[in-house]
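Methods — Computational structure assignment.
A single polypeptide chain was analysed. Its primary sequence is given first, followed by the predicted tertiary structure written as structure tokens.
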Amino acid sequence: MTHPNAVVRFVLLVGALLCLALGVIGIFVPGLPTTVFILMAAALASRGSPRLAAWLEGHRLFGPMIRDWRAHRSVSRRAKWSGTVMMMLCAALLFATASHWGYAALGTGVMVIVASWLWLRPEPPAASAAATSAVSSTAPCAPPATSSSTTPPR
């Protein structure tokens, strides 16, 4: 017989992987949120798979948003704008292709609620944002920046 904790961990891992897959698909599909699914994947993985959670937190793209959310319950301005623009494109597509305007209005209404929630989240503190941009702007093989107090005298 399988231990109940093993079953719960397996279900959490499957949920985390499903959310991760949806988040990655959301990078390419307008209207499908990336940030929300990645944050859900990180939350589920932290309970179901410490290995997957560590991988997500260390990931070049996903790590900063997960760390900002965990530390400050914040979302970067770039993620807010990206999500809003994608939702606007999706709403325009809905109105252009929906068989009835009511369906497009309902979908757009949900997106307005999500965008409102997103813009009501605080932005990461300046130090966190500066560290994130410094990490993303350095070359992959560049050595980490050191402070003058840790640099040995010449």
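Note: The mean pLDDT is 82.
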